[in-house]
Write a structure and sequence with these properties.
The chain has 25 helices and 24 strands. The protein has 773 residues and is an alpha/beta fold. The strands form six sheets. Strands 9-14-13-12-10-11 form a six-stranded mixed sheet, covered by helices on one side. Helix 24 runs antiparallel to helix 25.
Length: 773
């Protein structure tokens, strides 16, 4: 029985019900089509174990079936190797088939707008081209055997603060050029089975409700023909969701707004045809899942482990080296820092994987001396520092492992600052004070301030390197592998150097900086950074020559001029014509990674298109003029025919000095902006328990109840916000909107609406709704 036959036999209520999940992870069955299973998985699978008599939910976040823990996107993105990332996708797809997963919820293609975003480790870059190409590669890999990939979080989900209800306020050009371009590339080049709508609003409209975003742009402009699924609990208004083309409300169990949708069809404000369109796409997805479920090839877990190590090796970035690296066999080495023994190798939250195995740096380098130097919270004591100094004095080279412990960065909350733990800094300073040959290995999912840089001889950034990061780290330190990773985000000297540092992380996310994100800002403003976008050292050297442009083709020759084999990422930048006004100094347009033996050379060729030079101005337009093509240290001019476009604004966006004024930003936005104040009596289903508890006794009681329920899943000593899993679950519950709590908790209509009335001071009305619910 095909999907159209199944749809024809369904009642209106059954079609509405089909567009909501069966439970936390599965769709409903339909006719002869079995339910499909959805699973977290940006860098590996997190398929939750279900114990007999239990329902699956987020409370079992770290209770999952073992799978390969690949490096997170902060590290895999730094490989700049789309072929390698496609292989990672293929491996995840193979494991999905082995574990009965039909749709992998990943990759994420959101832009790293600010270094403090708690979920930056899950995203590839501050640049949309890197984000889009890497996401497309991952999608192609996952879907090679028929497993579906779900591109997320669409769109403008660039902070964890108030993520369930925040409003991303930005102008159309910024939206198109920075925050949608990566998704567009991933959709056009990767062709994902599914796209996930984000929690947040964009210019006042929830992503799940936005017909312009989901149908106008995603489907009509980009040609996406797959399933749109909400983030978990991310449906706002199901009536508007059906109109927008948001197909599947997850998770299931709440029957959220079913009666409202039925009434809307009866009174003509929602058409059955719109519901049919969504239901048909759900059935198409289920049909695809059923048809490809038996496409099981070999799932080679050992090969996946080796692949994870290769990604960690190629994604590690050598930030500094005064010649001390690579280490020599036989040197007396000391490993200092608890992360050498218990490394930080993945992020916290819904992407947390139960790895097949874990090899620490200490296990990979068993002959080295060792001192803990600090505890697992990043704290230290004088005794720990004395021990670290004593061990460092005995070694020819001291390798300090430092970075960010779990509690500093996670899904669900943003970082408080860009600093490392004080204990890690004290440990680096103590060791480097007694041993000038100190190497620092950084294990963290985001940018950190490194004012101690001058005190050490080398710095290797491992990011979050997955289950084999210990082996990868040893191979890199000893030169068995030549570092080739390049940064996909800028590392400023101080957080204050970031353009949005003074206004980031509020409930309304104000994108005042416009298109000036990451290197686009630092270069235009003339602000030096510690390590720029695209930076990364090697144990060899490369030379560029013979840059040419002909017939919309750009070519350049790259030669390995060193004594060891290595890999180089060739990056194509386009510089606009002189005096172009509101445009970045340069923008990345393409890249390729090449592997070269000593003295070997290769010619790399790129194609340029109209889009390479285009800006958004009520549509894509090409400003005419003499552009500059830049690859490495090579530059050449390229005349481009196009339109006469006046991109001058005669304000901050032309000169980029200081920060933009409210008036300048509002002119860019095309309207005035007015923030809304929270007050009792005007709470809505879009408010959170955390917000309302300061004004409402019933919400204070709810907050205590939520903490109690979450706490039952942890030992007593772990029921605090130093535990990232506990903190994430608390923020994901008490910090989620009432409608999100209703959907994610499988709570029937009436209960949350009644509690909302009580919070607004209408106690009797609220009790009545709760009793009817």
């Amino acid at each position: 029985m095909d999907k159209d036959t199944i749809l024809d036999k369904m009642t209106l209520k059954e079609k509405i019900a089909l567009c909501e999940g069966q439970n936390f992870w599965m769709t409903k069955e339909a006719g002869e089509l079995p339910a499909a299973f959805l699973c977290d998985g940006p860098h590996g699978l997190r398929k939750q174990e279900v114990r007999e008599g239990e329902e699956t939910d987020m409370l079992g976040i770290n209770r999952s079936v073992a799978s390969t823990c690949f490096p997170t996107a902060v590290t895999s993105g730094a490989t700049w190797d789309t072929d390698l990332i496609q292989k990672v996708g293929e491996a995840i797809g193979e494991e999905a088939r082995e574990l009965g997963v039909d749709l992998v919820l990943g990759p994420g293609a959101n832009i790293k707008r600010n270094p403090l975003c708690g979920r930056n480790f899950e995203y590839f870059s501050e640049d949309p081209v890197v984000s889009g190409k890497m996401a497309a590669a991952m999608i192609r890999g996952i879907q090679k055997n028929g497993t579906g990939a779900c591109l997320k979080h669409f769109a403008c989900n660039n902070q964890e603060e108030s993520r369930f209800s925040s409003d991303s306020v930005l102008d159309e050009r910024t939206l198109r050029e920075i925050y949608l371009t990566g998704f567009e590339m991933a959709v056009r080049e990767g062709k994902p089975v599914s796209v996930m709508s984000s929690y947040n609003k964009i210019n006042g409209i929830h992503s799940s409700d936005s017909k312009e975003l989901l149908t106008g742009i995603l489907r009509n402009e980009w040609g996406f023909d797959g399933l749109i699924v909400t983030d978990w609990g991310g449906m706002n208004d199901r009536i508007e969701g059906f109109k927008a083309g948001c197909d599947l409300n997850m998770p299931g169990g709440s029957n959220y707004m079913v009666s409202d949708c039925l009434k809307a069809v009866q009174n003509g404000t929602l058409s059955e045809a719109e519901i049919n369109d969504c239901a048909r796409r759900v059935l198409s997805f289920m049909e695809h899942a059923a048809d490809t479920r038996n496409n099981k090839g070999e799932c080679d877990w050992n090969a996946h482990d080796n692949l994870a190590r290769q990604v960690a090796e190629e994604g590690a970035v050598l930030l500094k080296n005064n010649g001390i690296l690579p280490l020599r066999e036989g040197q007396k080495i000391a490993l200092i820092g608890l992360m050498a023994d218990s490394p930080r190798y993945q992020g916290a939250g819904s992407s947390h994987i139960n790895p097949i195995k874990m090899i620490s740096p200490r296990q990979a380098m068993p002959e080295a001396l060792y001192a803990a130097g600090c505890d697992n919270q990043g704290n230290t004591t004088q005794d720990l520092l004395k021990e670290a100094e004593a061990v460092a004095r005995q070694a020819e080279v001291a390798v300090v492992f430092a970075g960010l412990p779990d509690r500093y960065e996670s899904e669900g909350f943003d970082r408080e600052n860009m600093q490392m733990p004080e204990g890690h800094i004290r440990m680096i300073e103590a060791v480097s004070g007694v041993n000038p040959n100190t190497v620092v290995v950084l294990c963290c999912g985001g940018v950190v301030e490194c004012f101690w840089e001058e005190k050490v001889s080398a710095i290797l950034y491992m990011g979050l390197g997955g289950q084999t990061m210990g082996e990868a780290c040893a191979n890199l330190l000893y030169g068995k592998v030549n570092p080739s990773g390049k940064l996909t985000e800028s590392w400023p000297y101080n957080y204050e150097d970031c353009i949005c540092s003074s206004y980031y992380g509020t409930k309304d996310a104000l994108y005042k900086e416009g298109i000036y994100v990451g290197y686009r800002y630092y270069e235009k403003a003339g602000i030096d950074v510690r390590w720029p976008f695209g930076y990364g050292l090697s144990y060899t050297t490369f030379a560029y020559s013979d840059l040419k442009t002909e017939n919309r083709k750009v070519s350049v020759t790259v030669r390995n001029t060193g004594k060891v084999a290595g890999a180089e990422t060739v990056m194509l930048y386009i510089l606009p014509p002189e005096n172009s006004g509101y445009r970045p100094n340069r923008e990345l347009k393409d890249f390729k990674k090449v592997y070269l033996q000593p003295e070997q050379s290769v010619t790399v060729t790129f194609a340029v298109t109209d889009r390479t030079f285009a800006v958004w101005d009520d549509g894509w337009k090409i400003p005419e003029g003499i552009y500059t093509v830049q690859i490495g240290n090579q530059n050449c001019e390229l005349p481009v025919e196009g339109q006469k476009c006046n991109l001058h604004r005669n304000d901050w966006y032309d000169c980029v000095k200081g920060i933009p004024s409210k008036e300048e930003w509002e002119r860019l936005l095309g309207r005035t902006y007015q923030s809304s104040a929270l007050k009792k009596g005007s709470f809505t289903m879009d408010n959170t328990v955390m917000e309302m508890k300061e004004y409402s006794l019933i919400m204070k009681i709810m907050y205590v109840a939520v903490k109690t329920v979450i706490g039952k899943g942890f030992p007593k000593k772990q029921r605090n916000t130093n535990n990232p899993e506990y903190k994430m679950l608390l923020y994901a519950s008490a910090g989620s909107t009432l409608r999100c709590m209703q959907i994610s908790g499988g709570i029937k209509d009436g209960i949350m609406q009644g509690l909302l009335d009580m919070a607004n001071g209408h106690v009797l009305r609220g009790l009545g709704k709760m009793m009817r619910g």
